[in-house]
Write a structure and sequence with these properties.
2 domains; three-stranded antiparallel beta sheet; Nuclear Transport Factor 2, Chain: A; five-stranded antiparallel beta sheet; mainly beta
């Protein structure tokens, strides 16, 4: 027995003018054997509606009140996306991700024997994966600040020492929001 499912999805944090995905899913089921198989999973991106004055000179661009009609009129606007559970790049200003990154930098400072605290200089990339919670992967640059660990100052009050060498880092943070006190875990780091 095959179940055919069509879903329309968008990023929950997006408030307006969001891109949507139309996903077609086929699940093959043999209930007498307790067997299920995901036999097809494809998604197509439907670009957010833009005001008429924002339309570029691209003749392939179609603006439609009906997103499904826009796909059928212009197949060049759709792309195949990664399946659910795949690592996906997200916006570098994502609030929840940056909170996880703050935890990661604090953890790196706790593991360091350096007298001075390291501070974030630049976020290069953020990736997110749906697991039992969120798995974040960060690529960023940090530098030695003018604050020592014994001063107990917040990093907001510290500035990066201009003479210090910047360090490129890649870390992974597992976020389980329902655990509250121990919601974040530093699972991998490379600096």
């Amino acid at each position: 027995m095959n179940y055919f499912i069509q879903m329309r999805m968008k990023d929950a944090s997006c408030k307006k003018n969001c891109d949507n995905e139309i996903c077609n899913i086929t699940v093959y089921v043999r209930p007498w054997e307790s067997y299920r198989e995901l036999s097809n999973f494809t998604c197509r991106l439907i670009f957010a509606q833009k005001p008429l004055q924002a339309i570029s000179q691209n003749p392939l661009q179609v603006i439609s009140q009906n997103p499904l009609q826009a796909i059928s009129q212009n197949p060049f606007q759709s792309i195949t996306l990664k399946p659910l559970g795949a690592m996906t790049q997200i916006d570098n200003n994502n609030t929840e991700a940056l909170q996880a990154l703050d935890f990661g930098i604090k953890s790196l400072n706790d593991k360091s024997n350096d007298l001075f605290v390291q501070k974030l200089v630049n976020v290069n990339k953020i990736f997110r994966q749906v697991v039992a919670g969120w798995n974040y992967s960060f690529e960023f640059t940090m530098g030695k600040s003018n604050c020592t660990k014994v001063t107990n100052m917040t990093l907001n009050n510290c500035s990066v020492n201009e003479k210090s060498k910047l360090t490129s880092c890649r870390i992974s943070i597992w976020d389980q929001p329902w655990l509250q006190e121990s919601r974040y875990k530093l699972t991998r780091y490379d600096c």
